[in-house]
Amino acid sequence: MNAALNTLLVEALKLDPSERMDFVRLLLASLNEDAEIDRAWAIEIQHRIADIENGSEQVIPIADALAQVRKNLK
To answer: Which superkingdom heads the taxonomic lineage of this protein's source (predicted)?
Structure first.
């Protein structure tokens, strides 16, 4: 590890755990060019899960869904 990285690590370890987690998230986001897209999908996924859990959306087994698709393709 080079000196700059070592210094950064020493300083980062002085942060409290929640600050270190925020720092990690910021670093990871800086590596991900599609961070905004990922964030938007995470929100959408949470909404879809909530809709299923509160009963406003119905789910069907994958076998039934595939059978319906196959039927519609004929």
So the answer is: Bacteria
pLDDT tens figures, 27-72: 887 887 777 788 888 899 999 999 999 999 989 999 999 999 999 9
Which ranges of 1-74 does DSSP label H, i.e. alpha helix? 3-12, 17-31, 35-53, 62-73
Alpha-carbon distance of 65 to 62, in angstroms, equals 5
What do you get for the CA distance between the two ends of the chain, in Å?
61
What is the distance between the alpha carbons of residues 74 and 44, in angstroms, rounded to a whole number?
32
Mean pLDDT score, 14-23: 92
